[in-house]
Design a protein that fits this description.
Chain B is an alpha/beta fold. Chain B is about 30% helix and about 20% strand. Chain B contains 12 helices and 12 strands. In chain B, the strands form 2 sheets. Chain B has an 8-stranded mixed beta sheet, sandwiched between helices. Chain B has a 4-stranded antiparallel beta sheet with strand order 2-1-4-5, with helices on one face. The chains are: A mainly alpha (about 300), B alpha/beta (about 325), C mainly alpha (about 400). The interface between A and C is large, with 44 and 49 residues.
């Protein structure tokens, strides 16, 4: 029995690391892949194109007030002559920045709180869960709205910070549930038997196994933040002039909708496009991390 | 005529990586009142074969061949007609009793459901039958326990409930798919005893699927060995254990630690089972077989009668096997 | 059960107390009420004036005293007066009723729709229907409430009202509908028999005919019924309103008032339902898929039960359980959506109450608003837990 024949016939077990399996599964999810590409291109565009575009978002073109889309101003202009394309690009930048900061904060807090509550259980868990319940009693939008009103002159990054400070609850619950079930598994017992410290067990052993839901939640938070920011701006509490965000532009556009619909449609399309892509990527991640995925049509 | 006749059964699953040939040209029969044991490793196709008999495979599965139950052809039967047999003539119990029962309904409700699915029976009658059945499988205080939920039973008890449910309509064939694998050894013995008891009382035919040769030795009349989706040996239980004719079976039997082997290294069959995707022609075992010859690699052996005995083996050299000490040819030192 | 409720109340009350403190801290931080700011900005602002205003708003006292004053009043039912001197409690009661209508309708429809679509999508996983619904769900997930409500207002009412007055169906539309019906019928049949070894072409044709027939029926009914509709003759008003929750000064019999409610509620509810149903359908689909892969489903099939019964009695029954919790916990998000939608459609509900309070920076109305919301959240959580325990016997109360 020669080895080559044996190899041919036997199960070719190419050592595929888990992350590569996940990436492979993600690549198979077509909407997610398309969305990822679109998103990347979009992000590059809104961050790089303004460097060469002739109309910065604050400049007023007095010769073209309230103009419908044209070659000079592909997204039209508003009442003060500000270029639509420039504003939408800047707005997208801002909204993305806000969303990513919020997502980071939410992930950080959610994971820490959830991990500690789920791993140590007992009193620590009780206290943390009561605290979570408390934060949950007041709806997100309302808390952020009230805090926004209190700080009218605050810079734009306070919005994601406040959001991050109150939006971690769902993720914390998920992480806690995962930790509570994983900590009973044998590999944790084994790690402890070798003398590993709690922090090591949490970070190097259990946490990687929870990576899936965490990534998914982080991605979905990005989309969710953009939507909440829109609602905030709608109430007049989001990003303030002269800075723009997509929500701000929507709010602006809604009031001018009858006469200058382009001021509404372009930012609306931008929001929907970004959120749609982010959501699809999130769905792709969810499928990629789920080991029970079987694409056999039943 | 046999109660169940399976001929040239082929089951193929379409997957992203290609077609998985889970069951390849399998044939066997089961007579009324007989216990047939089917043994094989995980992935050998033993479960899939029986799911095919029950019609429980996904719709995208491609099934070819013949499954004949009491004169009725089950392959390609419209799904609506399948329910005439499933749960009524043929019952099935599964491996993991912890998850095989619906957690939100009482045990009595679930058994009654099985009864009422196959005949116009009133709720009261079905409930009475449920108590009767629980009694049959040896659950104490059946009339009270019938109102309990599955999570209020232990694993062994739940498996008994499963058996009761499968027996609800007096089937003539019971398929038990690894019924004891998930249970403790002592409970295993109880469950098997229950099955034997039922068999004696109702003369039901049983297909017992397991990877545990000991279970088979104790209970079965005849045994079929499966490997890589194909049936490789089929004989009476004594004949199989004392005169195996297929190198794989010999390897399996030799791997059991037993008397006289203390202090020796455990024997194993080196290598691993082949992938079931896009299989090549030839014997699936040839890469691991100590008796392999060129013919094995090119021509798939069919399950054929070994000259002179009532014993089927799928091996080109099955006639010669008796004379060779195949066991020692499985080198115990080699670890793959 | 009773003990369970008592135990939960035991936890809920301290929680509400803590929530009241948190609320108080948040609200008192918003700074000076607008009325006072305006007064201060005036050139001839007198100290006495400002002082009396501060007393009126109750911000002349130190924080702890203010809290105690407010809280003790709150639990007794005295919620004070808002920035315009109107009694808060009766005002909020009025507003709540309006919003509750919207919330109730939105919840019912979005849950029913979401559950149905989720079940169908799961049972028909990977079919065109599934992909279609998935795309729609994601789409509505990605539209902010403000955008959707604005969009509906524009295209649901402002553009369609003229059409509603003179309904007609152009030939193009008719043809489109007929073709659509035919294609749908064909696809449904194709999907049912897609795994059969022999393609039953006659069944496909049957499906196409049925689809065509249904579409044709729809067109005919429309032509006969709508075109000569007397409702719109002599009713020059806009049928679908865009402002307010009722027609102002509407007097009339109960059926007419219900109709009035209905038309006014149509668009705002649609906005909330579209977004809500998107989430619920995805969730239900995922839950159904999880359940359908469970062992007990295989057991149920092995018993020889009809597939439809397996799906409903065994599948849906189990898949619904986690959904209940989601629906109940979603109250906060739903309320936020309602606030936006109410503002766009000019409803005088909780949304306006909140935005008015924010603009005026009136501590008392904001405190009342947030506390009421918190109470609702806690109550709904309790209800969710009770329902969950009823549905899942593994949970012991």
């Amino acid at each position: 029995m020669t080895t080559t024949e044996a190899d041919e016939r036997e199960f070719s077990v190419a050592a595929r690391s888990q992350s590569r399996t996940i990436m492979r599964r993600f690549r198979r999810h077509r909407p997610a892949m398309i969305s990822l590409i679109v998103l990347t291109l979009l992000t590059l565009f809104v961050f790089l194109f303004p460097l060469v575009w002739k109309w910065p978002y604050t400049e007023r073109d007095k010769s073209a007030l309230s103009q419908a889309p044209s070659w000079n101003h592909p997204f039209g202009t508003d009442g003060l002559g500000k270029d639509g394309l420039g504003r939408v690009m800047r707005g997208t930048q801002r909204s993305l920045e806000i969303a990513i900061i919020a997502a980071f904060l939410v992930t950080f807090l959610g994971v820490i709180i959830g991990a500690i509550a789920g791993y140590f259980r007992g009193k620590v868990d009780s206290v943390l869960m009561r605290f979570t319940d408390l934060v949950l009693t007041i709806p997100l939008l309302i808390i952020v709205a009230v805090v926004s009103v209190s700080n009218p002159g605050a810079p734009w990054y306070t919005i994601p910070i406040i959001l991050g400070l109150v939006a971690w609850t769902t993720l914390a619950r998920i992480v806690r549930a995962e930790f509570m079930s994983l900590r009973e598994k044998e590999f944790v017992e084994a790690a402890r038997a070798v003398g590993a410290k709690d922090s090591r067990i949490i970070f190097k052993h259990i946490l990687p196994n929870v990576a899936g839901p965490i990534f998914v939640a982080a991605t979905l938070t990005i989309a969710g933040t953009i939507i909440v920011e829109t609602a905030l701006s709608f109430l007049g509490l989001g990003v303030r002039a002269p800075d723009v965000s997509l929500g701000f532009l929507i709010q602006d556009g809604l009031s001018a909708f009858k006469t200058r619909p382009w001021l509404f449609w372009f930012p609306a399309a931008a929001i929907v496009l970004v959120c749609l892509c982010v959501n699809f990527v999130g769905d792709g991640l969810r499928d990629a991390f789920d080991p029970k995925q079987n694409r056999i049509k039943a | 005529m046999a109660l169940l006749e399976v001929n040239n059964l082929n089951v193929r699953f379409p997957t992203e990586d290609g077609s998985v040939y889970a069951v390849r040209d399998v044939s066997f029969t089961v007579d009324s009142g007989e216990i047939l044991g089917i043994v094989g490793e995980s992935g050998s196709g033993k479960s899939v074969t029986n799911l095919a008999i029950m019609g429980l495979l996904p719709r995208s599965t491609s099934i070819d061949g013949s499954i004949n139950y009491d004169g009725n052809e089950l392959v390609d039967l419209p799904r609506k007609r399948q329910t005439v047999f499933r749960g009524d003539e043929i019952g099935m119990i599964f491996q993991d009793p912890m998850t095989s029962l619906n957690p939100v309904y009482t045990v009595g409700w679930q058994i009654s459901e099985a009864v009422r699915a196959h005949g116009k029976v009133s709720k009261a009658q079905a409930a009475a039958r449920a108590v009767e059945l629980l009694d049959l499988v040896g659950i104490p205080q059946a009339s009270e326990r019938v109102e309990s939920y599955p999570h209020e039973f232990s694993g062994g008890m739940r498996q008994r409930v499963m058996i009761a449910m499968a027996m609800a309509n007096n089937p003539r064939l019971l398929i038990a798919d690894e019924p004891t694998t998930a249970l403790d050894v002592t409970v295993q013995a109880q469950i098997l005893e229950t099955l034997v008891d039922i068999q004696k009382r109702t003369n039901i035919a049983i297909i017992l699927i397991t990877h545990d040769l000991g279970v088979v030795a104790g209970m079965a009349d005849r045994v079929m060995v499966m490997y890589a989706g194909a049936s490789v040996e089929l004989a009476s239980v004594d004949d199989l254990f004392y005169h195996p004719r297929m190198p794989y079976t010999i390897g399996l039997l030799g791997a059991i630690p037993g008397e006289g082997t203390e202090g020796q290294k455990l024997r194993q069959i080196s290598g691993t089972t082949p992938s079931l995707i896009n299989m090549k022609p030839g014997c699936a075992f040839c890469s691991r077989c100590p008796l392999v010859i060129d013919r094995c690699r090119n021509e798939t052996p069919r399950l054929e009668v070994v000259t002179g005995v009532d014993h089927f083996a799928a091996c080109h050299r099955s006639d010669e096997v008796e004379g060779i000490d195949v066991l020692s040819m499985f080198n115990p030192e080699v670890l793959s | 059960m009773f003990r369970f409720i008592v135990r939960r109340l035991f936890i809920a009350l301290p929680l509400l107390l803590a929530a009241s403190i948190l609320t108080f801290v948040l609200v008192t931080n918003i700074g000076t009420p607008k009325a006072i700011e305006d007064a201060q900005a005036k050139p001839n602002a007198s100290k006495a004036q400002i002082e009396s205003l501060r007393r009126q708003f109750g911000i002349d006292k130190p924080p702890v005293e203010r809290y105690v004053d407010w809280f003790s009043g709150f639990v007794r039912g005295d919620w004070g007066k808002n920035q315009n001197g109107v009694e808060i409690r009766p005002l909020m009661w009025e507003r709540i009723q309006v919003t509750l209508r919207l919330l109730l309708a939105a919840t019912i429809f979005s849950v029913v729709l979401g559950v149905l679509v989720g079940i169908l999508a799961a049972v028909r996983q990977y079919t065109a229907f599934d992909y279609f619904m998935t795309f729609f769900a994601f789409l509505f997930f990605s539209i902010p409430a403000a955008v959707l409500a604005g969009f509906l207002k524009e295209f649901g009412a402002i553009q369609t009202n003229p059409w509603m007055r003179e309904p007609s169906m152009s030939t193009w539309l008719m043809v489109l509908l007929l073709v659509f019906g035919t294609i749908c019928g064909y696809m449904v049949m194709r999907n049912r028999y897609k795994y059969d070894k022999v393609r039953p072409t006659n069944k496909y044709i049957l499906g196409a005919m049925v689809g065509l027939g249904i579409a044709a029926g729809f067109v005919i009914v429309f032509k006969i019924g709508w075109d000569g509709n007397t409702y719109r003759q002599g009713n020059p008003k806009n049928i679908i309103p865009t402002v307010g929750q009722t027609t102002p000064g509407f007097e009339g019999e109960w059926p007419a008032r219900m109709q009035d409610y209905f038309w006014h509620m149509l668009l705002p509810t649609m906005a909330l339902v579209l977004i809500g149903f998107a989430g619920y359908s995805r969730y239900m689909r995922a839950s159904m898929l999880d359940v359908l892969n469970a062992d007990y489903i295989r057991t149920a099939r092995a018993k020889g039960i009809k597939e439809s019964r397996v799906t409903v009695r065994h599948g849906v029954r189990n898949a619904l359980i986690p959904l209940i919790t989601i629906v109940a916990l979603d109250f906060g998000a739903l309320l936020s959506g309602a606030i936006i939608t109410e503002t766009i459609f000019g409803w005088a509900g909780m949304g306006r109450f909140f935005t008015d309070g924010l603009t005026a920076k009136d501590p008392r109305s904001l405190l009342a608003f947030v506390m009421v919301t918190a109470v609702f959240v806690v109550v709904f959580n309790l209800i969710a837990d009770i329902i969950y325990a009823q549905l899942d016997p593994r949970i012991r109360l």
